[in-house]
Write a structure and sequence with these properties.
By secondary structure, the chain is an alpha/beta fold. 40% of the residues lie in helices and 16% in strands. It has helices at 43-53, 67-73, 104-111, 133-136, 145-153, 173-185, 209-227, 241-253, 263-266, 268-275, 290-294, 303-313, 332-347, 369-376, 386-389, 395-410, 416-425, 429-436, and strands spanning 29-37, 76-84, 87-95, 123-130, 160-164, 194-196, 232-236, 258-262, 283-286, 300-301, 317-319, 357-361, 381-384. It is elongated, with a radius of gyration of 24 Å. Bound molecules: ribulose-1,5-diphosphate (RUB).
């Protein structure tokens, strides 16, 4: 049991903040789902303290508080599901008036700000957020979305297979570009479509941005000329805003098709600023560092919530996981739930905003790509790094083996045992080599 001074609770305790059963109009309120973990004796208080601290309240009564402010602007816990004595799921309704339109930092500072540090709460996780259309439509949203991406590469729909150039860092521009070329080309022109830089690759001495981008894009042009295939290179422009703008201009000038940004480390406002420059290219959002926010099962923000925020911000594609977790670190069922919930947030009807394309990445190989396609297709980009460049016969064979495993999955061949049989029967040499090596 925690010993807290009585004064701490005084002004958080107004009944306005806890109104079980209140009829909430979803056009007039933002509704936030929290998982709350605290000791049994504090749980009832927290039902009031969370909405209070994240709207108009503070720890002490203040003279300027009026009935009007309290009634009109206070957030209210209106639904509670007690999972056990120390864990409740609560729904909190925030009056729309509390939100500045088109301002993600303000929105998060409101319902996902101070509440995480409250000393009456052990752990808190924001699991979902539901916004009125009026607020959604104040944001730019994606310029392209899945449909714009399909149109750009000239296909109707379906999973888009891609790769992350490996090693992650260290190759000089010529090797980086040759690896991209081999991976796009594959064996007999059966290579992947979508290639991306890795998240920490920007403009280091060993691989200068301009040298790398121009060489890789030169190869993309060659593929287009020789085969008619429109391939994509998501160029990592991550950096300070002025630097990102210069890099985006460089990509546009060199005929690039996609900008990549590490959207968490860069920040919402910076990403939205780049989105609003309207470069005419989709934005591929890499979520490096999301685990600091999403991974703890009891604390932080669910990936679904980040997905909603980045769809508002206007990214065209974002990483949301593979359903397996990264490098086996996750719990399978939870990873699956989180990826499916995130992809739903990217693809659901959402005001007038376009959809955002989910990206499945991290530990993808020929053995599991079928299960990923089975769970996430058709709208998904799937990128493999080690799973392609680690092929015993090199990147071109690796890319082709991934395309063959995709072909098998689209024919319903998902399980590893049947995949090897299918590869042998259909003379898919590169896939056989991948599965047997
Ligand atoms: C994957 C990779 C990806 C991240 C993304 O490499 O480099 O950028 O893992 O992870 P590999 P997430 O295919 O060799 O594992 O999409 O989960 O954020």
């Amino acid at each position: 049991m925690k010993i807290l001074p009585l004064i701490f609770f005084m002004s958080y305790m107004d009944d306005e903040f806890y109104q079980p059963g209140l009829d909430v109009d979803p056009d007039k309120y933002v509704i936030v789902d929290f998982d709350v973990h605290t000791s049994a004796d504090l749980m009832e208080r927290v039902y009031k303290e969370i909405p209070a601290e994240s709207s108009v309240g503070t720890w002490k009564k203040v003279a300027q508080m009026t009935d009007d402010i309290l009634k009109r602007l206070s957030a209210k816990t209106y639904e509670v599901t007690k999972v056990n004595d120390t864990f409740s799921k609560i729904k909190v309704a925030y009056p729309l008036e509390l939100f500045e339109p088109n301002n993600i930092p303000q929105m998060l500072s409101l319902f996902a700000g101070n509440v995480f540090g409250m000393n009456t709460v052990d752990n808190l996780k924001v699991m979902d957020v539901q916004l009125p259309d009026e607020l959604i439509n104040s944001y730019p949203g994606p310029a392209f979305g899945p449909q714009g991406i399909y149109d750009m590469i000239g296909i109707k729909e379906g999973p888009i297979i891609g790769s992350i150039i490996k090693p992650k860092l260290g190759s000089p521009p010529a090797i980086h570009a040759q690896t991209a070329m081999d991976t796009w080309s594959g064996v007999d022109n059966n290579g992947v479509t979508w290639i991306k830089d890795d998240e920490p690759q920007t403009d280091q001495d060993f691989c200068r941005f301009e040298d790398r981008i121009s060489k890789v894009l030169e190869y993309a042009d060659q593929i287009k000329e020789q085969t008619g295939r429109q391939v994509v290179y998501a160029c990592n422009i991550t950096g300070p805003i002025d630097v990102m703008m210069k890099r985006a201009d460089f990509v546009v000038d060199h005929g690039g098709k996609t900008l990549m940004i590490d959207v968490i480390t860069t920040g919402f406002a910076a990403v939205q600023y780049i989105r609003e420059q309207n470069y005419g290219l989709p934005i591929h959002a890499h979520r490096a560092m999301h685990g600091a926010i999403t991974k703890h099962p009891k604390h932080g923000l669910d990936m679904r919530v980040l997905s909603i925020m980045y769809r508002l911000t206007g990214v065209d594609a974002i990483h949301t996981g593979t359903i397996f977790g990264k490098m086996g670190s996750g719990k399978l069922e939870e990873d699956r739930r989180e990826t499916l919930a995130s992809n739903d947030a990217l693809l659901m009807k959402f005001g007038n905003l376009k959809q955002t394309m989910p990206i499945a990445s991290g530990g993808v190989g020929v053995r599991n790509i079928g299960k990923i396609i089975d769970a996430l297709a058709p709208h998904v980009v799937i990128t493999a790094g080690g799973g392609i460049h680690g092929h015993i016969d090199g990147s071109a064979a690796g890319a082709t083996s991934m395309m063959q495993a995709t072909e098998a999955a689209l024919q319903g061949v998902i399980e590893e045992d049947s995949l090897l049989k299918w590869a042998k029967e259909n003379n898919k040499k590169e896939l056989v080599r991948a599965l047997e090596s």
